[in-house]
């Protein structure tokens, strides 16, 4: 009975007989191939199917079409790195958020609806409610959240702030060192000047005050 139970458990865990890493590897290869296809379509080297695909997707995405192969490469990388079995819906949601937020930011930043129809549809309510700058902030936050979800990573800002602090500390130290060097140069210059002899000093005084 125990053996039958274990067998059912194994069948439920791997219904296709493939390990999780193998499934993720297959999905990653599919994403890489699709990314290459979309990239080739943009350069009109993917035949009739590529040309048709590019024309239709360009209407939807505009200049943001380049985000599609980028997104697929990111998704493929996340599948390769992930060891969690059930990550399908998480990747779908994070990928959709990444694409839409990026298109919205492109549309708002360009001011000419460069994000295609999807970018215009997404950015219009944001701009009406929050104006351009605040819209970029909110859409940028969604973009960061989507990347964190995609790679299941935590946000660690401590090294970032440490780098900023060390940068300003080095800059301040450099300014202080340059000022110190200038003072040292002045002291050296004065020390290198020859002393005025008493005889020469007397002659100078006579020239200034002749009898």
From TrEMBL:
Cellular component terms per the entry's GO annotation: plasma membrane
Membrane-crossing segments per the record: 26-45, 57-76, 88-106, 126-151
Membrane association type: Multi-pass membrane protein
InterPro entries associated with the record: FtsK_4TM
Residues annotated as domain DNA translocase FtsK 4TM region: 45-155
Key word Transmembrane present: yes
Primary site of residence: membrane
Identification of the protein by name: DNA translocase FtsK 4TM region domain-containing protein
């Amino acid at each position: 009975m125990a053996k039958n139970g274990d067998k059912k458990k194994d069948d439920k865990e791997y219904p296709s007989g493939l390990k999780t890493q193998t499934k993720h590897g297959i999905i990653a290869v599919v994403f890489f191939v699709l990314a290459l296809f979309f990239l080739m379509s943009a350069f009109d080297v993917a035949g009739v199917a590529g040309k048709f695909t590019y024309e239709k997707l360009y209407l939807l995405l505009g200049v943001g079409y380049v985000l599609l192969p980028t997104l697929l490469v990111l998704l493929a990388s996340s599948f390769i790195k992930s060891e969690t079995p059930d990550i399908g819906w998480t990747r779908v949601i994070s990928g959709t958020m990444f694409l839409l937020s990026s298109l919205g930011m492109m549309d708002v930043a360009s001011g000419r609806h460069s994000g295609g129809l999807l970018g215009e549809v997404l950015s219009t309510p944001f701009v009406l409610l929050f104006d351009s700058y605040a819209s970029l902030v909110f859409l940028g936050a969604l973009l960061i959240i989507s990347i964190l979800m995609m790679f299941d990573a935590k946000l660690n800002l401590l090294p970032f702030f440490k780098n900023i602090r060390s940068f300003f500390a080095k800059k301040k130290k450099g300014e202080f060192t340059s000022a110190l060097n200038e003072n040292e140069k002045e002291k050296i210059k004065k020390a290198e000047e020859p002393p005025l002899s008493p005889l020469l000093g007397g002659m100078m005084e006579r020239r200034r005050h002749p009898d």
